[in-house]
Amino acid sequence: MANPSGVASLILNRIAYAVNWYNLATVFSLIASEFKQNVSGLGLASAAFYLGIGIFQLPAGILAARIGPRLTAVYGTIIYSVAAVLTGFAGSMVEIIVLRFLVGLGMAFVFAPGIILIVRSLRKGSEGLGVGLYNSAFNSGGVIGLLGWAVLASTVGWRNSLIVGGSIGLATSVLLLVALPKEHKHVDFKINFSDLKLILLDKWLITLSIALLGFGVGNAVLGGFMAYYLESATHLSVGLSGAIASLTLVFAFFVAPFSGRLLDRSGNSKRLIVAAGVLMSLGIGVAALSTVYSAVLAVALVGSAYGAGMTFVFSAARATNKSDQEYETLAVSWVNSISLFGNFIPPLLFSFLVLRFGYSPAWLCIAALTLLLMIPIALKGSKNKE
Hints:
- There is one protein chain.
- By secondary structure, the chain is mainly alpha-helical.
- It has helices at about 5-35, 40-55, 55-65, 70-85, 95-110, 110-120, 125-155, 160-180, 195-200, 205-235, 240-265, 270-285, 290-320, 325-340, 345-355, 360-370, 375-380.
- The protein has one domain (about 5-175, about 190-380): Up-down Bundle (Growth Hormone, Chain: A).
- The protein has 17 helices and no strands.
- The model is unreliable at about 380-385 (pLDDT under 50).
C-alpha cells in the first residue's frame, strides 16, 4: 500500500460522509412529529439533497483539475459538515430542505476526488479494490447513520444527533489535510473545450451514467424511505426500523470489495453491471409484498446489488480517462452528476405514489423504473473500454 495513512483518512472521511447522507432519514419521524410533516416532507428534503449533489458534480471535477482532488475534497467536507450542523438548529421544514440542498452541494465536491485519491494511494493493479473499499466505507457509514443515529436521536434528540454528525465530518477534513500529500496546484489550467466535449459526449460514459442512475434510484428510495416505511406502515420502533434499513448497507459493505476484485480479474464491466441491475430491480419488487420479512429480503438484495453495481460503474468510468489525470476526476464526476441529478425525481415520485396508491404499487413502479434504466447498457456493444 503506497500511503496507508492517506487511505485511512479517506476511509474515515467517507464514513462521515455517509453518516450525514443517511442520518436524516432515520430521525425524520421525530422531525415529522415536531413540524407536523408526513412522507412528502421527507420526499422534498431528499429531492433537495439530490439536486445539490447532482448539479455541482461537474463543477467539482473542474475545480479538482485546477487545485487538485485533495483540497477539493477538504472544501466539500467543510461545506456539507457546516450545513449538517446548522440543520440541528433549523426552525422549520423549509430551513431543513434548504440546508439539505447545501449538504448535497458540499458532498458533490467530495466523492469523485475521493475515488481518485484512494486509487492513487494504493499500488497499481488494485484500482477496482480501491473503489470497492471506498464504497464499503460509505456503506459502513450508512449503517452507522441509519442504526446508530436512531439510537443517538432517541437518547439526545434529533437536533443534537445531527450536530454530532456534522461535527464528525469537520474532524475528518483535518485528517485529509494531514494525511494526504500536497498536490501541485494547476491554477493556470484551462479546460480544453475539445477535450471537455469528448468527455461530455462520450457514449460509454453516458451509458454508464444511466446505469448508475438505476442503482441510485433503487438505493435512494429504499435507503431513504425504508426506515420511515417500517415505522409508519408496520409500526416498528425507530430503532428496529433503522436496524432493518441499515442491512442494505451491511450487505453492500461486504459485497463491494469482492466486486472490485472480481472486476479486476474479469474486466467485463458490462455484464457485471447488467447482472447487478437485475438484482436491484428484483430487490425493490420484493418490498411490495409489504411484510417485515419481505423488507429484510429486499434490503439484502438491494444492498448486494448496490455494493456491486456502484463499484463496477465507477471503476469503468475512472478507467475511461485514466491516461489523463487532469480529466480523470472529471470523468467520474460527469457520470455521477447525471445519475445524482436524476435522483431528485424518484423521492418525489415515490412519495406521490405512496400518498395516491399506497406503498406496494409505489415499490413496484420503482422496481420497473430501475430495470428500464439498465436497458441502454444491456444493448450497448460488447466493446470493453477498460
